[in-house]
Design goal:
This protein is α+β, with helices and mostly antiparallel strands and 180 residues long. It is built from three helices and 13 strands; from the N terminus they run H-E-E-E-E-E-E-H-E-E-E-E-E-E-H-E.
């Protein structure tokens, strides 16, 4: 029995959910998202609550049940409150700056690395704490852009220099001859 798929999704005020068969469109103050789900899942809305039902107890239907509910919940949460990932820059001389909407990273290469955000994604910098916030209404694209920023200079285990997620722990290694 899918526990995730059974939970109802409450639609907050200011968010409009339109369901046409297996196509769901969610519109809110932060933006608009739409997705077509597998036709086997029955998606219904009643009194501001969206619920998902599966046709049988087969393994694939159980998996699609929970996934469909999670994706619709992420769509509703994204257009109402949005998502964010926080990255931290560590290293002497490593810094980030904004050039218009683009993020420019100076992380030890001979050239600055410029990252331009796709539609629906914005960056926010805090130079005092050396943190980069990636914000948007699509959870998947926020995570993807944050991973691409981290990939520019991943943290290394000897000195801890690089770009890491705020809650990420870097396993440190002893250097040559066991120096601490």
């Amino acid at each position: 029995m899918s526990r995730v798929g059974q939970m109802p999704i409450t639609v907050p005020s200011g968010v409009d959910v339109t369901i046409k068969g297996s196509h769901v469109r969610v519109k809110g103050p932060k933006g608009q998202m739409e997705h077509t789900f597998p036709a086997a899942m029955e998606i219904s809305q009643k009194d501001g609550i969206v619920s998902i039902h599966r046709p049988s107890d087969e393994r694939t239907h159980r998996a699609l049940h929970g996934m469909t509910r999670a994706l619709i919940n992420n769509m509703v949460t994204g257009v109402s409150t949005g998502f964010e990932k926080v990255l931290e820059i560590n290293g002497v001389g490593y810094r980030a700056e904004m050039a218009g909407n683009n993020l420019v990273l100076h992380v030890g290469y001979s050239h600055p690395v410029e990252i331009d955000p796709p539609e629906g994604i914005s960056f926010e910098l805090d130079n005092r704490t050396r943190q980069i916030k990636v914000m948007g209404y699509d959870k998947q694209s926020v995570g993807h852009i944050a991973a691409n920023i981290r990939k520019v200079r991943p943290p290394e285990p000897y000195k801890g220099k690089g770009i890491k997620y705020l809650d990420e722990r870097i396993r440190r290694k002893a250097g040559k001859a066991g120096k601490v």
